[in-house]
Amino acid sequence: MQLFRTKNIADLLQEAQGKNKLKRDLSAWDLTLLGIGAIIGTGIFVLTGTGALTAGPALVISFIIAGLAAAFSALAYAEFASIVPVSGSVYTYSYATLGEFIAWIIGWDLVLEYLFAVSSVSVGWSGYFQSLLAGFGIHLPTALTAAPGAVPGETTYFNLPAFLIVMGITFLLARGITESKKVNNIMVIIKVLVVLLFIGVGVAYVKPDNWTPFAPFGSTGVFAAAASVFFAYVGFDAVAAAAEETRNPKRDLPRGLLFSLGICTALYIVVTLIMTGIVPYMQFAKDVSHPVSLALQIAGQNWVAGFVDLGAILGMTTVMLVMLYGQTRIAFAMSRDGLIPKKFSNVHPKYKTPFGTTWFLGIVAGLIGALIPLQRLAELVNIGTLFAFTLVSIGVIVLRKTRPDLPRVFRCPGVPVIPLLAVAFCLFLMSKLQPITWTAFLIWLAIGVVVYFTYARKHSVLNQSENKVN
């Protein structure tokens, strides 16, 4: 039963006020922008093109399906966030309800989700940035534009822009949450304005005939696209990782989670309808790297397309910022529990951030993006996220049965139906991912099991406490 020993919620709350505590400086407004910063990026500016080729105009249905999976999970997240407002997101929630081994597995899974998401988005950012430089007649040496073997017929060694942007974000996060939130808030407001500009200009060029046939590949294409574009919703759970830096977490965390997800889902639906209404879906086969600006170019609105490219760069920057932020806070929580070395939970005396952890993870993410071609990384991130959403939804049901006495500022409605719907949607989308994705995911989890039994279980704070008692 040691595998499923749980951490006392009162102890979790007390730890958050201990020596290694983080600075509380985030409001509901900041959390909402943090969520939007994590969600609007690669999904809306890149994946809409590949999704349209898979589902046709019915891509809007794919976004709704993926959004429902995220929405049902968000309700479960919001209840947990109001009960356990500490760093670690679903890792911490699982430790309090499902036990240490499950918590370790989900923490290990979140490494896959957050770290690889930062790396994959950095590659997309690099492409847009190089395109922007080319517009000014500036071209980087080919050897420094992509990872080895990433570009057929070209000799490339290192994706320098991808590495540098992650290093810049790492520097910002290491300096403190106040500085990070200011930069994030400004960039989020700008990119939302860019999306609204696209909607305002693009709606005049919609041709309803382009929506026919609406679902050229039937339900198979719609479901496959839903599993793929789920990447567009990855990151809203990073809001939950900000619990210990929130002024009033029991009230503001649920608001930040639900507001950010609702706003982004509405924008995804409208943008997808307009984009597929301007461009016949098969035209995206020619160039899927920047589908939103491509739609405006076809409409003859090149000046707006330029703003969209800028919005894409800012959008991807905030995604990387929030995802790397979430990763550092989860590592911080796991280290505090003894499951990874204690150095990862050291807090800088001046900046009040996990300084060393931030730089370590930032460098790792930067090198992955610079050195490894990551074509299938989006699917790996998707399966990791869906797995996390499944566990947190189960955790809400378990906690309602085992600890009905806990004060819940926010209660997930319709328990157990809503959490079970979240589980069903997530498992369904996982079933639509490629077999190679499942193989890679299971290998990653197998490595995690080995690490747990060779290191984490022995060094666990709970294990140390039990040994002292015995």
Query: What share of the residues does DSSP label as strand, in percent?
Result: under 5%
Q: Considering the protein shown, what is the CATH homologous superfamily?
A: Amino acid/polyamine transporter I
Gyration radius, in Å: 22 Å
What is the molecular shape? globular
Low-confidence stretches: none
Assembly type:
single chain
Q: What is the name of the CATH topology?
A: Amino acid/polyamine transporter I
CATH architecture: Up-down Bundle
Tally the helices: what do you get?
A: 17
The termini sit apart by 16 Å
The top-level CATH class is Mainly Alpha
Can you give the helix content as a percent range? 55-70%
Largest sheet: none
Beta strand count: 0
Question: Please, what is the average pLDDT?
Answer: 86
- What structural class do helix, strand and pairing data support? mainly alpha
**What is the number of independent domains?**
1
Q: Helix-strand pattern, N to C?
A: HHHHHHHHHHHHHHHHH
